[in-house]
Amino acid sequence: MSRQGLKTMDQAQTVNKELYEFKNKRVSIMNKLMPVLLLLCASVSILTTFGIVVTLITETYHFFKVIPIFDFLFGTKWSPLIPPKSFGVLPLLSGTLLITVIACLVAIPLGLASAIYLSEYAPKRVRKIIKPILEVLAGVPTIVYGYFALSLITPMIQSVFGSAGVFNALSAGIVVGIMIIPMVSSLSEDAMSAVPRSLRDGAYALGATRFEVALKIVVPAAFSGIVASAVLAFSRAIGETMIVTLAAGSTPNMTINPLDSIQTMTAYIVQVSLGDTPHGSIEYGSIFAVGMTLFVITFLLNIFAQYIARKFREEY
Asked: Distance (Å, rounded) from C-alpha 236 to C-alpha 238?
């Protein structure tokens, strides 16, 4: 080989070596940089949660410096804007729980029945059609649900119960239940689909019907997922805002009559957050006290859901 050819080969080897070193250096930098970037991305949610908690605790502390916490938690009258002012949160809490119970009575049976059908009865092609359609309900804006409750559900309730007003807890609870059906059905169906086929085949071999297999084999095996979906739906119903604001009214009554107008904790927060309340006032502080109460309730419910999911989880 000529001298010129050897020189060209050496140059090519040098270039390849430099490219290889550059590539290794770039890979090394990326390997060090990417964990940092991913950590920063993960820290956003943690820092956001921390900021929310700090804000709630700070403002709630200032509120309880003026209003005794015992009067707030156990008072039976809520009138923070109209003299004589009262700050007993029980009427808001009872209204929230009334809406939530009605919603769960609607969503859990319908959602569980839908999940059983999709998991055990529906052909694969039908399941691919029905499940996305059912989950479309989760994408409907809640304010649309609120007007749906006012324009359709409330007149139907009034035609059956003449004593029902325009704003009532039953209408809002039914529509909130319709809204959370996809959450119950989707999570429950996923839990049922995870049950091994061998359990079903064994039950069929013993002479069980399809309904018996679904009710006595699949549902108990997927019980942890079903309960977790119900608790998460309960938490979602507690935090609903626009439906109850439009359909349930703004009357903080401590009642169990679903035909009465009530006010939930989220509806009160919307009412006071419209801009008419001076910053730093006791009424302004009540927003954070109610928000903190709501935060604690949903936080405990989520912990309970995780506990149930771990306690009754079946591994196959």
From this structure: 5
Q: Are residues 93 and 135 in the same domain?
A: yes
Q: Are residues 78 and 204 in the same domain?
A: yes
pTM (two decimals): 0.81
| Whether 288 and 263 share a structural domain | yes
Half-sphere exposure of 39 (CA within 13 A, CB side): 5
Quick count: other Cβ atoms within 10 Å of Cβ 204? Answer: 14
Name the phi and psi angles at 33, rounded to 5.
-80, -40
Nearest to 180 by CA among 130, 237, 254, 218: 237
Q: Do residue 187 and residue 306 come from a single domain?
A: yes
**Beta-carbon count within 10 A of 121 CB:** 12
74 CB neighbour count, 10 Å cutoff? 11
User: For residue range 128-184, what is the model confidence (pLDDT) as tens digits?
Assistant: 888 888 877 777 888 888 888 888 888 898 888 877 778 888 999 999 999 999 888
Torsion angle of C-alpha atoms 143, 294, 300, 221, degrees rounded to 10: -20
Q: Report how far apart, in Å, the C-alpha atoms of 55 and of each of 24, 61, 161 are.
A: 46, 10, 44
Q: What is the CA radius of gyration of the chain?
A: 28
